[in-house]
Amino acid sequence: GAVVSQHPSWVICKSGTSVKIECRSLDFQATTMFWYRQFPKQSLMLMATSNEGSKATYEQGVEKDKFLINHASLTLSTLTVTSAHPEDSSFYICSARAGLAGPYEQYFGPGTRLTVT
Amino acid sequence: DAKTTQPPSMDCAEGRAANLPCNHSTISGNEYVYWYRQIHSQGPQYIIHGLKNNETNEMASLIITEDRKSSTLILPHATLRDTAVYYCIVRVEPARQLTFGSGTQLTVLP
């Protein structure tokens, strides 16, 4: 099946610094990528949707200036958490979609655990 | 997309069938039922999906009632590695993003 990777798998950063998380589709071209956030013992919450070459669409309540999303190519999307604070500590998961064909069209990465100290 | 209701938790003995129910009473005719699972600290994994017919693959079976208002995911021989949160999602194929509810925590007991 299609594989989505994320890097890093975990990161610890100090409050006020920025962190970049990469999401790659390894064996397919992802026309659309999604970024989710998951707090402990909670479900996944969609943060934003991005299409290659376009600006991301953010869900209500998600600060676009704080969570910068870039989808510059069909295989790479990045999420940058700017000026991170402890409340941004969470599990960030990306998902990629290879267009409109097939039942598996949304594939998930393994997630990145961010801890802000 | 239609809202789904799942029990928060279930236990199952190893080697037995695990039957996970999902109610989606407001489902409309063009909405599919998807099942994903999330093992602790991993990304969600696709299991199966269906529209109105029962479906089976190497992982599980999906039974959808005739009125489509509920469905059951069946893991025929549960193993300890099947312990996970199972999400039932209803959405229009294929354009919409997946919206996750609270899911069912399935614990397979030795």
What report would you give on this structure?
The complex is a heterodimer of chains A (117) and B (110). Chain A is an all-beta fold and 117 residues long. In chain A, strands 2, 4, 5, 6, 9, 10 and 11 form a seven-stranded mixed beta sheet that branches. A four-stranded antiparallel beta sheet of chain A has the order 1-3-8-7, with no helix packed on it. In chain A, a hairpin with a 5-residue loop joins strand 5 and strand 6. The N and C termini of chain A lie far apart (37 Å). The mean pLDDT of chain A is 91. Chain B has 110 residues and is mostly beta strands. Chain B contains no helices and nine strands. Chain B has a five-stranded mixed beta sheet with strand order 1-9-8-3-4, with no helix packed on it. In chain B, strand 6 and strand 7 form a beta hairpin. The N and C termini of chain B lie far apart (37 Å). The chains are: A mainly beta (117), B mainly beta (110). At the A-B interface, strand 5, strand 9 and strand 10 of A face strand 4 of B.
